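Record Class I SAM-dependent methyltransferase, 227 aa.
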Amino acid sequence: MYEHGAELWESAEPNASLHLLMQERPDVFAGRIIDLGCGEGRDSLYLLSQGHDVVSVDVSHSALSRARERAAAANLDASGFMERDIIYLRGFEEGGFDLAMNMGCLHMLVDEEQRARHISRVHEILRPGGHFVVDHCASEWGKGFFSIPDYDDIAEDLVPGRVISRRIRVEDGEKNIGLEVLPYAERSGDALTEEISRHGFRLVSSTHTDTEAFGSSTMLLFAKPGA
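=>
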């Protein structure tokens, strides 16, 4: 994607879902935060600019490089951007975080064992009383995405492994390139709640969201009991 001239895959602005949660529950952002699957850092950079203590992890070296460049350009501390697999989250101590955010990354894990391992590790690295927020595709993956403006015309082609035309942002505007559809998972709010609750989390709130980033999604806020 970057070789085609893309400045960023995502918008430079933080997710609308993040803004919503910060307005409704500013208290959960007090303390140490980990952004799981941070990508190019859209949410992490915003939180850093607001003075929050954030560690940001992603498996993509290229995306992290962009995030660090953007942090440096904004005079923000880039040392918290780390290359880690969110499934295992190696190197993080138990109870080390107050908030874990998975904004649109969990729905890119389709293997049930990997999803379970990730959720279990999140539970381990959160302190008792900490929170876990998940924004996950509910249905019609791709609908509303900036990169798929013609969703209704190509919905039947959104099959993992197929190459479809995706819109990207470049320096002088926009262009379309062919990209392979990656595996993705869809979950109803109830199914996602059941899945995550099995690992010891307690549901705090559930909100349906429809954003440019994730389309039709469910944002769930969980707490780790025991504070």
